[in-house]
Design a protein that fits this description.
Two copies of one chain form a homodimer. The first copy, chain A, has two domains: 73 residues, Multidrug-efflux Transporter Regulator, Chain: A, Domain 2 (Orthogonal Bundle), CATH 1.10.1660; 51 residues. By secondary structure, chain A is mainly alpha-helical. Helices cover 72% and strands 3% of the residues of chain A. A two-stranded antiparallel ribbon of chain A has the order 1-2. Chain A binds a DNA duplex through helix 2.
Chain lengths: 128, 128
DNA sequence: GTAAACCTTGAAGTTTACTCTAAGTCAATG
DNA sequence: CATTGACTTAGAGTAAACTTCAAGGTTTAC
């Protein structure tokens, strides 16, 4: 069992964010101590690993929440989750390809500006 | 000279967004007709090209606004703009590498889920 | 010359993902 | 057993990037 602070260290999320995720049903049903403090289990940590993985690849919290709800339903949703995950992977792939194209444009602009700058400095080297 | 609607078609931005960008100083000083309608020049379109390029690679509107302000100051800001652009390109590169790693994790999960699903269906094939 | 389509403005509203606040409860230490 | 510091809650606030609204002015086509 881990306190919210330990989970912060392990996941890189803040306590605020963990509580927020709980409220938003990404990871509800976290155990509590007698005094009402959160106690995260190893499964909770594993679930948080999945949550971060999906979040880091740009899935909205709303969709992550849906995915985690399916997870809590157990193995009979394995097929559906597998399909969702594949679809997500494809989305990410497409986004990365687009990004690659956009990046090429930036690179082109950097070269263009570098040339323009060189020319500008050639023309103004005598006025200094 | 192009109407706001023509610029929408060329850039893929909505009229709302174009007006918003004007208000936010990304591209202020757009010419107006006698009746007060916006008339975009070819330079405006070129500037919008740069704006979209920066936006597509994840630069904030605030930073784009700063970049465009430098652009309006003319050639004496070429060096600064060139540096900014290079820094931006590096940022994008780093972000893409991170994304690649996150994507690999998703791919791993897809495979893991595919295997788990296969096993689940093997175990439940006789109960149907 | 009037109706329909299009443009104008400022301001308020929306969404996402937090982030902070206040007022209080709980646990550990001297 | 009191203090310190971490934890609790509901709810308000924030930031970015739009998006919508209402009320009105402009163009164009018949």
């Amino acid at each position: 069992m881990y306190s919210i602070h330990e989970v912060c260290e392990r996941t890189g999320l803040t306590a605020h964010t963990l509580r927020y995720y709980e409220k938003e049903k990404l990871l509800p049903n976290v155990n509590r101590s007698a005094g009402g403090f959160r106690q995260y289990s190893d499964e909770d940590l594993e679930a948080l690993g999945m949550i971060c993985c999906l979040k880091n690849t740009g899935m909205s919290l709303q969709n992550i929440s849906r995915f985690m709800a399916l997870t809590r339903e157990g193995d009979q949703t394995l097929r559906e989750r597998c399909e969702l995950l594949k679809k997500h992977r494809d989305t990410v792939l497409v986004r990365m390809e687009e990004m690659q194209k956009h990046l090429e444009k930036v690179t082109w602009k950097v070269n263009y500006f570098t040339e323009r700058l060189a020319e500008y400095e050639r023309n103004n080297s005598d006025t200094r």
